[in-house]
TrEMBL record:
Its EC number is 1.14.13.128. It comes from Komagataeibacter saccharivorans. One of its GO terms (molecular function) is oxidoreductase activity. SUPFAM superfamilies: Bet v1-like. This is Putative methylxanthine N7-demethylase NdmC. It is an enzyme of class 1 (oxidoreductase).
Length: 284
């Protein structure tokens, strides 16, 4: 009889963020990943490492995008490419780590939602009466391995720390892995280019996660502390909503929650998870 894979097994071959590089220490640090106790840090040579404690097994690691990544199984491929990260005029802004008592898919789905801007991020990312989410386009890219939402537009009173007034902001949303999502948005300083905001979600358990936001910005004016504070303010507003959502695991069945036209990216993400047999942090 063919065994049914556990929820964790469907994502064992994915790369997951476990720490900002700035927080690596020579004394091992404990964390959780997919219900497993792991430790990480710098070894005596200054090289990053991660270890599965129960199995006493060293794990593969990569240092990329300001973070330490690891994989509990055999990697299915490389970490998703973010071309903008290599552009020399961008600032890499590590916005810290947030523990959230909800599933990793719930956090990703919230990141993809524009409809909550005026009500949760009032006078920053949105404000009444500009509450309508205009129709946008869903695309599958990279042979179906990524989901994109393009031609997204939303009026924002303060789209970024560097913005000096409200602007009509263009968004591109990208799901590059089950728990990796990116936002490309109009750069106030150079409107022909996009700022890039990433959210790397570490699934600690099925109902508890750590969010690692990292930004790649075209902004040579704002103070680093102010950039971090701006993004942290936004995420802490989201955390209140996320921790009060029930169920904590993301429902994947079609009738579990009633979507609206504004939820087309959420519907596409859930369908994409189902098609990839990603069960971790979800309910059928």
């Amino acid at each position: 009889m063919t065994s049914i894979p556990s929820a964790a097994e469907t994502v064992l071959g994915e790369w997951h963020v476990i720490s900002p590089l700035s927080q690596l220490r020579t004394t091992p640090t404990d964390t959780m990943l997919l219900d497993r106790h792991i430790t990480f840090g710098h070894d005596s040579r200054g090289e990053p490492f991660a270890c599965d404690v129960a199995e006493k097994r060293m794990l593969p690691v990569q240092a990329r995008y300001g973070c330490l990544w690891t994989c509990l199984g055999t990697p299915k491929g490389d970490i998703a490419a973010i071309m903008e990260a290599d552009e020399p005029d961008r600032r890499v802004v590590d916005c810290g780590v947030f523990t959230v008592r909800t599933s990793a898919p719930r956090i990703v789905e919230n990141f993809l939602d524009m409809a909550h801007f005026p009500f949760v991020h009032t006078n920053i990312l949105g404000a009444e009466p500009n509450t309508e989410v205009a129709r946008y386009t869903i695309e599958m890219r990279e042979n179906g391995n990524e989901v994109w939402a393009t031609d997204c537009h939303f009026y924002q009173p303060q789209a970024a720390l560097s913005a000096t007034g409200g602007i009509e902001t263009e968004y591109l949303y990208r799901v590059a892995g089950p728990f990796i999502t990116l936002l490309y948005k109009t750069c106030p300083a150079q409107p022909e280019r996009f700022d890039v905001i990433t959210l790397f979600v570490q699934p600690m358990t099925q109902e508890c996660s750590r969010a690692h936001p990292v930004m790649f910005l075209i902004d040579d004016v704002s103070a680093l502390d102010s950039l971090v504070e701006f993004q942290q303010t936004i995420f802490l507003q989201d955390r209140i909503i996320l921790e009060n959502q029930r169920p904590r695991r993301l429902p994947l069945s079609g009738g579990a929650e009633v979507p609206t036209m504004a939820d087309r990216m959420s519907v596409a993400y859930r369908r994409w998870l189902r098609d990839r047999n990603v069960a971790y942090g979800t309910i059928s």
